[in-house]
Design goal:
With 432 residues, the protein is an all-alpha fold. It has 20 helices and no strands. It has three domains: 2-101 and 143-173, no CATH class; 189-348, no CATH class; 355-431, no CATH class.
Length: 432
Amino acid sequence: MAAALLAAAVLPSGPPGIGVPLLAVLIAAGVVSARRPAPRVLVFLGLGIVLASFSAVRDAGWVVAVDLCAAWLIGCVAVAGSRVAAVGAPFARLTELPGVVPQGPRGLAPAFRGAVLGGFVVVPFAGLFLAADAAFAELGSRIPLPSVESIPVRVATFGIVLVAALGLALVARRPLEAAERTARGRLAPIEWTIPLVSLVALFAAFVAVQLAVLFGGHDHVLETAGLTYAEYAREGFWELLTAAALTLTVIAAAARLAVTPQRRHRILLTTLLGLLCTLTLVVLASALHRLQLYEDAYGLTRLRLSAEALALWLGGAFVVVVVAGLVRAVRSRLADLAAAGTALALIAFSLVNPDALIAKRNIAHWHETGRIDIPYLSRLSADAVPELARLPRPVRDDAVLDLADELGQAEPWSSTNLGRERARDALERSAH
């Protein structure tokens, strides 16, 4: 209830800020109070709070949105386990709400009626006093009251946060029962050996070509494909990322469905999957190489930086899979490690300050090539202002004009944000 009230009070008042991590702390406190949590639950709740805290650190809306979605998912994983069903677990428990609400004392109903009656009595007198005395009216003007127009949004915010927080607490109070495992082993050794060997051979042939390109360089690409390096990079990057992501699916299916009746079958399966992971890491390295070539030609954007981060995350996922194949302790906790590793990766991505990095890379690209996309840089968030403020005039003025106008607007306390404060300081320094 406290989390829902805080959300209704601060979230519609302005851009995301310090109010969001305060809200995350209250929701986590509700989960902890529902049942004595295991250390694993505390770790995941802590990761969720850290992700939500970037609302008070970064101004880039796209980064904050991803972090908040991840914070919710990590909260679900904390109470329901690292599985797909965790996403809907909080809503599955809401049907039990009437049975777990404690009965209030007998004097609660009269107290409630007294509070309502007190409101009817106090409001008219408050209006009269505000109209009668200017000093008292000035005091009343300092009390932030919601506008009539914002009431529907605040009511909706209250309801959404209340349902979400209650759902998490209810799952923490009584976890969902684990779904019955289906029988493993659907494919005989010959059935999984042929496709895996074929896939490894295909990957090996592709990797051989990539190594030739990597060492052959620009001339090799022109001679064999008739493309420039930038065109070559743009053509294949997303296809390689898709192939890497699909490979994870193949590995998961093989680990779940493959029958390994003898030790030699287990060794063969582990070897084939290990080779597939290793070759996929080379494919990802090729994808990153292509992306860097494209960035060298055209500069860095949010989409390109996100793709680069996705490729690095996929690489980390394959490394974890390889380690899990070799170490039993890692294999037994693979789902939790994957969820926690993804949360840590998002935290690292947010700490890098993406918009500032994009501005810094594009400014460096400008110094090297003389080309810069000022309209694109001007659409970045306030996180980029400290870098943009280093540009010489009049380029700097064009880049920060719209951002300076936004930063000049007043914000409520709940929107306090480190990125915007640093941007204001940078603009003030550059003006002198």
